[in-house]
Each structure stands twice: as structure tokens, then as C-alpha cells.
Amino acid sequence: MAEFAKAHMQAAAAQTGVQISEGSTNILPLGTDDEALRGWRLHARLVARHLGNGIYQGWDLHPHQLITRYAATFRFYRQEFAPCAARLRTYAHGTSGTVLDELTTAKALVYYLQRGVACGALSRQDVTEATGLTAAQISSLTRTGLMPADEEGTP
């Protein structure tokens, strides 16, 4: 039921600028080594699941959860960085690939990369090198999903 409710909240909040937040886990990474490890594994799994479901805000109840928050977040953005950058490069440069992306998907790919940069998992240089795009091109893709026209008016 909780997953159903979150999906409905996401749908209701879509395109409103309102971000929903994931709740915390009350299983803390404290106690014996085994108990702490169990708490970290659970927290990392939950953070990864929420990120994968498009929920980028979360609550942590204890400072020890920050370890797995950072680790799971960095892993999330690093894990799909190469395929995401390759798809964006293919879209932006109009080359053929195995996936045919469109404007909305291109914007989502850019947002994914930008969130990865914002959290520190990726660098701007990583993104530029992997996509072959300049900061101005990335900015245009963010706003419109389209590549900016060059001086001669061609994309």
C-alpha cells in the first residue's frame, strides 16, 4: 500500500515543482558489528530503491545513516553514468544507436547527469567528456530538449 500511495503522490506532484520525500527506516546501523552491517545494508537498499523510483529526497534518523546515503547515491549515479551519457551523446549528435530517444527523454537524461554532478558523484568534466557536449549545449538541452543552433542556424 505504501508503494501505491507513493506512486499516486508522485503522479499528483508531477510538473508542479513539488518534490516528494521518502520516509526513513527505523532500523539503525548501531549495536554489534552484525547489527550495524544489517542496518547499513537495509538503508543502502532503501535509498537505492527510492532513487530508482525517482524519489530524490529522503530522511535519515541517525548520523551513521549518512554513510550509506552517500554510498548509495554515488553508486546510483556512477552505475548508469556511461549508458546515460552515451544515449545523450547519440541523441544530441543525431547519430544512430540501439535506442531511439526523443525530446522528453533527452531532458531526463540531462537532469540525471546534472543531479549526479550536484551531489558530487560526477564531475562536469566527466559529463563533458562522455557526452561531447559543451556547457551551453547541456543548458539548452535542459531548457528545451533541443541542441542550440550554431552561428549558421543549423542544429
List the helices and strands and how they pair.
Layout: H1 2-13, E1 21-22, H2 33-52, E2 57-58, H3 65-79, H4 81-93, H5 103-119, H6 124-131, H7 135-144
Parallel strand pairs: 1-2
Could you walk me through the main structural features you see in this protein, from its secondary elements to its overall organization?
The protein is mostly helical and 155 residues long. The protein folds into 2 domains: 2-76, no CATH class; 80-144, no CATH class. 61% of the residues lie in helices and 3% in strands. It is built from 7 helices and 2 strands. Strands 1-2 form a two-stranded parallel ribbon. Strand 1 (21-22), helix 2 and strand 2 (57-58) form a beta-alpha-beta unit. The longest helix has 20 residues, at 33-52. The chain is globular. The termini are far apart. Mean pLDDT is 87; it is low at 151-155.
- Measured by DSSP, the beta-strand proportion falls in under 5%
> How would you classify the helix and strand content by structural class?
mainly alpha
Uncertain runs are: 151-155
Radius of gyration equals 18 Å
The ordered string of helix (H) and strand (E) elements is: HEHEHHHHH
Distance between the termini: 47 Å
Mean pLDDT metric? 87
**Order of strands across the widest beta sheet?**
1-2
Keywords:
2 strands; 2 domains; 155 residues; disordered C terminus
Brief overview, please?
The protein is an all-alpha fold and 155 residues long. Helix content is 61%, strand content 3%.
